[in-house]
């Protein structure tokens, strides 16, 4: 808009020398050009714009990406896909969508939240409408709790005012000061507006390692009883998970009003990853680096990972978190194989 108005001002000195008809025509052309350049369909091709409430999330594209890139998490994929699709298709949600993702490091919590953010705002974490909070970076001092609460409220209020479909991701919830997250309780509640601002189109995502031990034990119990992990359903884990993090002083949600008021829509468990899932991560990383999948390298990297329990060695204790670093050691082999072609 500013550029087009500026263009009109640049034209004005020359307009004085023209006949009235010519002046009128020139002003008309300039006005039309101003309208065209400021039209959202043109402007938003060059500047990131907040999506309108009418824009729906491409559920099929999200499903394809989750299936292709997130391994061993049938529960998380299914729940998140249904939750965000239903939320996106609802013309008048009563509250923001609030998801709490739990599980050990390397199981895909950050990865899934990034994929989801990219499907709401294509720029993903680079988008000015996607906001990532890290407990150890943004809220490091426990004696500053009151200041953090006020800053957090102001930040969320200001950004939702600018874009109702803002996405807020809170990582390291298990390192967050107890009580801090309750500062945003009014924004997650069933209010049409809070101080003139509606939060009902926003998405809030909490990421936490808390509850990981409970999830791992449940997964191991299924394995011990001879059941497949794909038989695990959300109802088998969610009640236990919500109670567990509510009573865990190191969860960031200890005795939280968000749980008491049932403002978290889903507690989503991320299961520990087995050998086969780690190998899927290795293959995906090799492909992403432009190499053909070499099963000898895949096996070599998998052999360098550590697994638990000590006797059975079923689950990776770091998920896929160290796959990239482990694969770096084999870079020369992959480069040589690629050169041989």
Topology summary:
Blueprint: H1 2-15, H2 20-38, H3 40-43, H4 59-69, H5 74-89, E1 97-102, H6 109-120, E2 130-134, H7 135-138, H8 145-162, E3 167-171, H9 185-188, E4 203-208, H10 212-224, H11 234-246, H12 257-260, E5 266-269, H13 275-288, H14 295-304, E6 307-308, E7 315-316, H15 323-328, H16 331-340
Parallel strand pairs: 1-4, 1-5, 2-3, 3-4
Antiparallel strand pairs: 6-7
Report on the structure:
The protein is α/β, with parallel strands linked by helices. It has helices at residues 2-15, 20-38, 40-43, 59-69, 74-89, 109-120, 135-138, 145-162, 185-188, 212-224, 234-246, 257-260, 275-288, 295-304, 323-328, 331-340; strands spanning 97-102, 130-134, 167-171, 203-208, 266-269, 307-308, 315-316. α13 (275-288) crosses α14 (295-304). The radius of gyration is 25 Å and the shape is globular. The model is unreliable at 1-5 and 7-12 (pLDDT under 50).
Brief rundown of the structure:
By secondary structure, the chain is α/β, with parallel strands linked by helices.
Q: How many β-strand stretches?
A: 7
Helix content: 40-55%
What is the H/E string? HHHHHEHEHHEHEHHHEHHEEHH
- Average pLDDT score: 90
How much strand content do the residues show? 5-15%
Give the termini separation: 53 Å
The largest β sheet comes out as: 5 strands, parallel
Which blocks of ≥5 consecutive residues have pLDDT under 50? 1-5, 7-12
Number of helices: 16
Give the strand order, joined by hyphens, for the main sheet: 2-3-4-1-5
Inertia-based shape: globular
Which class best fits the helix and strand makeup?
A: alpha/beta
Kindly provide the radius of gyration, computed on alpha-carbon positions and rounded to a whole number of angstroms.
25 Å
